Each structure stands twice: as C-alpha cells, then as structure tokens.
C-alpha cells in the first residue's frame, strides 16, 4: 500500500466514523451545527480538529534531515 493510498484510507475511515457518530448521537450533530454557525465562540473546535489531524497524520513520522 502506497503512502497516498494509506492517507486516503485513513481519511475514508475518519469520515465513516464521523458520519456514524453523527447518526448515533443526534445531540453531537446539533452541537456541530451550532458550532458551525457560531464559530467565533467555538474557536477551540478548530483547534481540536487540527490536533486530531496532527495526531492522525503527523505523530510517528520521521523528520527529514
């Protein structure tokens, strides 16, 4: 599996999990909708999403010399 295929697989799994959670937990979906409308009050949501992306794709990667 190439790195590109691995990244696509991770993104697909992440999207599937988010959709499943939204369907299972309606209050979460309502909260996310409210956060999208009132983004200036939920700036930390952006930070949490950035942290999740960093943990998924950044941690454990060797730095180039």
How would you describe the overall organization of this protein?
With 65 residues, the chain is mainly alpha-helical. It has a domain of 32 residues. It is 75% helix and 0% strand. It is flat and about 40 Å long.
What's the short story on this structure?
The chain has helices at residues 3-24, 26-37, 43-57. With 65 residues, the chain is an all-alpha fold. The mean pLDDT is 82.
Count helical runs.
Answer: 3
Q: Ends: how far apart?
A: 25 Å
Shape: flat
Rg over C-alpha atoms, rounded to the nearest angstrom: 15 Å
Order of helices and strands: HHH
Q: In percent, how much strand structure appears in the residues?
A: under 5%
Q: Which structural class do the helices and strands define?
A: mainly alpha
Unreliably modeled segments: none
Instruction: Sketch the major β-sheet.
Output: none
Mean pLDDT: 82
Q: What is the number of E strands?
A: 0
Which oligomeric form is depicted?
A: single chain
Helix content: over 70%
Write the layout of secondary structure elements.
Elements lengths: L2 H22 L1 H12 L5 H15 L8
Helix pairs in contact: 1-2
List keywords for this structure.
65 residues, mainly alpha, 3 helices
């Amino acid at each position: 599996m190439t790195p590109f295929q691995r990244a696509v697989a991770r993104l697909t799994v992440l999207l599937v999990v988010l959709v499943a959670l939204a369907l299972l937990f309606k209050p979460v979906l309502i909260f996310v909708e409210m956060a999208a409308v009132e983004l200036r009050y939920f700036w930390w949501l952006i930070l949490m999403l950035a942290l999740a992306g960093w943990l998924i794709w950044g941690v454990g990667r060797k730095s180039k010399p």
